[in-house]
């Protein structure tokens, strides 16, 4: 088992700055090569503590920005234009990347932070959840319309 320090948020494992213990293969072949984590050392842990202190100072402003982005996203529905057949079925599905591109004008959202309850494979109106911050989540109305 390897003790590592996360440098980015890893779903199901922790957030940046967390010290976690994972299996050697997961650390050596996935987390460290992708720069999601660094091996634990006392020097690395002290630098992480300094980063945490700086981040705490920025956190309040980040929460306020996330709340403002949530209000902007929830104010109007997001329209996604896709190719569809005569019956309203889509050629493929609407991905989180498509939704992130449509949202892009209002707020910068990473496609990995968009949660769709079930695949969107037909025209219509849907609701998706967007995690903007640890405590701030927006429920966004998505209108899927056919391209002309």
TrEMBL record:
UniProt cross-references to SUPFAM superfamilies, sorted A to Z: L9 N-domain-like, Ribosomal protein L9 C-domain
Gene Ontology BP, a term: translation
Keywords of this entry: Ribonucleoprotein, Ribosomal protein, RNA-binding, rRNA-binding
Limits of the Ribosomal protein L9 domain: 14-41
Annotated GO CC locations: ribonucleoprotein complex; ribosome
InterPro entries for the chain: Ribosomal_bL9 (IPR000244), Ribosomal_bL9/RNase_H1_N (IPR009027), Ribosomal_bL9_bac/chp (IPR020594), Ribosomal_bL9_C (IPR020069), Ribosomal_bL9_C_sf (IPR036791), Ribosomal_bL9_N (IPR020070), Ribosomal_bL9_N_sf (IPR036935)
GO MF annotation list: rRNA binding; structural constituent of ribosome
Lineage top rank: taxon: Bacteria
Cross-referenced PROSITE patterns: RIBOSOMAL_L9
Membrane-crossing segments per the record: none
Entry function: Binds to the 23S rRNA.
Membership in a protein family: Belongs to the bacterial ribosomal protein bL9 family.
Name of the protein this chain belongs to: Large ribosomal subunit protein bL9
Natural source organism: Demequina lutea
